[in-house]
């Protein structure tokens, strides 16, 4: 596969996640190096074709599929401070995507090794001239990188291509309110003419970007009201609710996908509980029901 040129000094190497490459005088910066047995070699080869060396790596967040080749590339890795321990500890990574140590082969992407992070940044910082913008909700420190020179934002997993969402049923998130706020932020950038790059999906701009962002936003808002509709039929546990939502959206229900969806589902339940719209009940297990008062 070949690099796609996004601007004077910015390129995209395809994949899921795709990797953005920013060329500076002092060398190239990789954003989300990704995963896979040969990917580090592919990235090194493509950067060599640009006649520069890899100077640094940035990651949007610590999920294994975004960073697992980072240790095989000889350049320091930078990440938001909230994601630092997620990248470094494989157990923390499993905790974030499963809730505890995960059964072997159970997660969509599992990587049992530590990934060393060399430095952390804050939102608002400009590591290598790329502004770190707060796009969390998918994970605690999910960060987008804004390349003002070329009008591009590498948006990580703050939104997804339609195919990814359709296959799982829901966008993966750990806080629906933060996730929605990030989408709203991205809509402002889309209106300002920025090209938005999701890690899993095609880069979008203009009307197409706004439509895809709305698709993400609607799926989250619709899920909230679907949960309430389901609970109006009677109390239900989180597994049951997640199963019903996946069926509603026509997603194939596998043990792996259902386990993955339990994480966003718990986050939705927490939100509805905090808004005093549902309450917990013990009924052959932990179940949730509509509040009647
Ligand atoms: Zn992710």
TrEMBL record:
Residue intervals of the Metallo-beta-lactamase domain: 15-200
Keywords: Hydrolase
Pfam families referenced in this protein's UniProt entry, alphabetically: Lactamase_B
InterPro entries linked to this entry: Metallo-B-lactamas, NDM-1-like, RibonucZ/Hydroxyglut_hydro
Gene Ontology molecular function terms on file: hydrolase activity
Organism annotation: Thermococcus indicus
Superkingdom, taxonomy of origin: Archaea
Keyword Hydrolase carried by entry: yes
Protein name: MBL fold metallo-hydrolase
Coiled coil, from the record: none
